[in-house]
Amino acid sequence: MKKRMISLILSLTLLLSLSVPAFAAAPTVQPHFTDVPTSHWAYTQIERAYSDGVIAGTAGNAANYTGVFSPSGTLTEAQFVTIMTRAFFNDELEAAKKSVGPNAKWYAAAQKASVDFRAGQDGCSYHSLRHGGHHDEHHGCKRIFWTPWTC
Fold this sequence. Notes:
About 50% of the residues lie in helices and about 0% in strands. Residues about 125-150 have low confidence and may be disordered. By secondary structure, the chain is mainly α. It contains 7 helices and no strands. The radius of gyration is 26 Å and the shape is elongated.
């Protein structure tokens, strides 16, 4: 009987010691954007895009967890090209940042990177890109980043 009691006490002690971590509080996750709660359907993807440097939000300071993402807002063409440039042409974007300088508009480096990228396609010249539309087709340019504000 004494052995059974000791065995039961040891079993309960082991069981309780293993279950304590299960009752511990889960770590608190703080979103970088105040308008994207952890319950938002795209929360994980938005946070990953932020951590990968693809998005920065529309206002506030995401690094201090006070950013604004505007998930219900309309994505502008400048925002789209900036996101695509950050995602796929980061080296070109970094070079363009040095070229446009620190006082340029927030989208200027992405604009320059997209123009420079397009200018290298199929022998296009910057002149043909500036005129856009039928001039691009006439000169045989690939319309990878066709945007009115880069033409």
